[in-house]
Amino acid sequence: MISPSQSKQAQLQSSQLEIRRMRAPDVAGVMEIESVSFGRHHWSEESFYNEMNNHVGRYYSLVQTGAPTGSPELLGYCGFWMILDEAHITTIAVRPEFRGNALGELLLLHILERSMSSSIHWATLEVRASNYNAQNLYYKYGFNSMGVRPRYYQDNQEDALIMTTSDICSAPYRARFQQLKSALQQRLSGLPKGYGV
Question: Fewest beta carbons less than 10 Å away: which of 74, 75, 100, 135?
Answer without folding.
Answer: 100
